[in-house]
């Protein structure tokens, strides 16, 4: 008798200042898929596939939703200068590293953005020479992990989007629970199979400098 496929597990992180989110889809087995979600119009854009392990709770999204901070383990890299675990920053929803910090252990790792171009990471501060993280300010520190809000009993993950919608995941489905208690399916991620694709050229583009904020001096009032 053929067994039913195990549904994928979904974990979501929302951007703090934009209607953007990232979805980490786990399955089948050791495959992960990264999906960008526009929470304003509920559109979804497939990104990287990764065979190994992504630790979603240690990941983060920049406030504008453009950059992804992630922590991964990939055993077949153990004898390389990447080591078998690393923290990196890329363009959402790809894993092409702009900055990469080898960790060499799954203890620690990951981090949080403090603004669109600054982050606190747990672990080694020395960046990989091929991925120096130009344009990103990095400090070391301990920051909290992301976690489910546990607002929906029986769900795998739950949380609130930028407009306060209650969203949860269960059996490969991304769901919204309305104020009336109705459950509405926003997306079904069950029928995905691993299909690694080359990242677009924009994923490897260096970060442009942020426009500096201009503080205008007030004119002195007359006597």
Strand content: 35-45%
Percent of residues in helices comes to under 10%
Largest β-sheet summary: 5 strands, antiparallel
Q: Provide the low-confidence segments as ranges.
A: 210-223
State the secondary-structure class. mainly beta
What is the global morphology?
A: globular
Oligomer: single chain
Q: Cα-atom Rg, whole angstroms? A: 19 Å
Order of helices and strands: EEEEEEEEEEEEEEEE
The overall strand count is 16
pLDDT average, as an integer?
A: 92
Q: Number of helix segments?
A: 0
Termini gap: 92 Å
Characterize the structure shown:
The radius of gyration is 19 Å and the shape is globular. A hairpin with a 2-residue loop joins strand 10 (111-115) and strand 11. It has a domain at 9-147. Helices cover 0% and strands 38% of the residues. The protein has strands at residues 9-14, 20-26, 31-38, 43-51, 53-54, 60-61, 67-73, 85-91, 99-102, 111-115, 118-121, 137-140, 157-160, 166-170, 173-177, 183-188.
SSE blueprint:
Elements: E1 9-14, E2 20-26, E3 31-38, E4 43-51, E5 53-54, E6 60-61, E7 67-73, E8 85-91, E9 99-102, E10 111-115, E11 118-121, E12 137-140, E13 157-160, E14 166-170, E15 173-177, E16 183-188
Parallel strand pairs: 11-12
Antiparallel strand pairs: 1-2, 2-3, 3-4, 5-7, 6-7, 7-8, 8-9, 10-11, 13-14, 14-15, 15-16
Protein name: Oligogalacturonide lyase
Region (Disordered): 190-223
Biased composition (Basic residues): 213-223
